[in-house]
Specification:
InterPro entries: HMG_CoA_synt_C_dom, HMG_CoA_synth_N, HMG_CoA_synthase_prok, Thiolase-like
Number of domains: 2
CATH topology of the largest domain: Peroxisomal Thiolase, Chain A, domain 1
Low-confidence stretches: none
Protein name: Hydroxymethylglutaryl-CoA synthase
Enzyme class: transferase
Shape: globular
Family: Belongs to the thiolase-like superfamily. HMG-CoA synthase family.
Distance between the termini: 41 Å
GO molecular function: hydroxymethylglutaryl-CoA synthase activity
Structural class: alpha+beta
């Protein structure tokens, strides 16, 4: 039985910041951001958005009445949770009008948790082929104003419906994975911003990819020529290139050129959004499917990495009608419709977040948008509504 990604959707807030303008404001050369890091624009999160609203807004794009009836489980992967006890999945369940008779759970392991959720969903559907699982991967990458990590901020959510006989891609049973305790990235409980050792994180990412690629090829007997492209976790787009460059010498010059073109296709959306942590690798996948040279029957590699650190490498087999299943995802238009902020406006938005639950407060989100919004705190409770 084939199990995999039946539907795939992306959402990001409607505000954005141009990296050239940020570089100028911070006294840096724009090429350091746009070429050295590989980012052009980053999404900015207003205080009426959070991981719950983004996840719900992504899922709303693809869920039908039939999906809602068949969904037996909601897995919400995030490292930007809104509560230390209550799952973001519980909020999303109600806002999406899902059945109360399903399992709802939140998962965390830096940028890797979405992949763990996807694998759990695959295993569940294999045992219950008439059921579906909704996996949401939503995060806000937040490092602070005028910090080294500021250029790699971003936000967004991916929603994935996992089912039998999927329309987009089958998840192959070929995963290899590893974990080790590494102090490359973390966020203390009391902090609203992350701490990172950027050089160490890059080194561990590259090492884990190379190790897992070696284990994967030994296990599956597949070679680089068997793949039509890679979807990498992209905290910034240059990271995928650093990983792929390590194994390109295993391909012919013609294959190398093709894989580099496919890598560029997978980076298109992430370059315009920034880091969305656990959803990043699946935004790269969506970008590759829409912007790359993909045909049914091909195999794609997926490399998922989460600092701290954990990684997994596996493959997807593209299905016959995948194009019709993703054609409704007009990501290009959504990104183009965002309002570009000045640097001072961005700083005001960054500082406007409502983190203090002890103070009743109301956000000022736009009206009549048909989107889920966080409307503020009341008596210590988070309040949401569909505007």
């Amino acid at each position: 039985m084939t199990v995999g990604i039946d539907k795939l959707a992306f959402y990001t807030p409607g505000l954005a910041l141009d990296m050239v303008e940020l570089a100028k404001a911070r006294g840096d050369e724009p090429d350091k951001y746009t070429i050295g890091i590989g980012q052009s624009v980053q999404s900015v999160v207003p205080n009426y958005e959070d991981v719950v609203t983004m996840g719900v807004n992504a899922a709303k794009k693809i869920l039908t009445a039939a999906d809602i009836e068949a969904i037996e489980m909601l897995i919400f992967a995030t490292e930007s949770g809104v509560d230390n006890s209550k799952s973001a999945a519980v909020f999303a369940q109600k806002l999406l009008n899902l059945s109360p008779y399903i399992r709802t759970i939140e998962m965390k392991q830096a940028c890797y948790a979405g992949t763990y959720g996807l694998m759990q969903a695959k295993d569940y559907v294999r045992l219950h082929p008439d059921k579906k699982v909704l996996v949401i991967a939503a995060d806000i990458a937040r490092y602070g104003l005028k910090t080294a990590g500021e250029v790699t901020q971003g936000a967004g959510a991916i929603a994935i419906v996992v089912s039998a006989d999927p329309a987009i891609a089958a998840i192959e049973d070929d995963s290899v994975y590893m974990s080790q305790d590494v102090p490359d990235f973390w966020r203390p409980v009391a902090s609203t911003t992350a701490l990172v050792d950027g050089h160490l994180s890059t080194d561990i990412y590259k090492e884990m990819f190379l190790t897992l690629w070696s284990r994967y090829t030994a296990k599956t007997k597949l070679a680089l020529a068997d793949f039509a492209g890679f979807a990498f976790h992209l905290p910034y787009t240059k990271m995928g290139k650093k990983a792929l460059d390590q194994i390109l010498d295993q391909a012919t010059p013609e294959q190398q050129k093709f894989l580099q073109e496919q890598l560029a296709a997978s980076q298109v959306y992430n370059r315009q959004v920034g880091n969305l942590y656990t959803g990043s690798v699946y935004l790269a996948l969506l970008s590759l499917l829409q912007q790359g040279q993909i045909i049914a029957g091909q195999r794609l590699a997926v490399f998922s990495y989460g600092s701290g650190a954990e990684a997994e490498l596996f493959s997807l087999k593209i299905q016959e009608n995948f194009q019709s299943a993703i054609v409704g995802q007009d990501v290009v238009t959504m990104l183009a419709d965002r309002r570009l902020l000045s640097v001072s406006e961005y700083e005001d938005v960054f500082n406007s977040q409502l983190f203090d639950y002890q103070v009743d407060a109301t956000t000022a989100g736009p009206k009549n948008t048909d989107r889920c919004q966080f409307v503020g705190w009341q008596n210590g409770h988070r309040r949401y509504q569909m505007s």
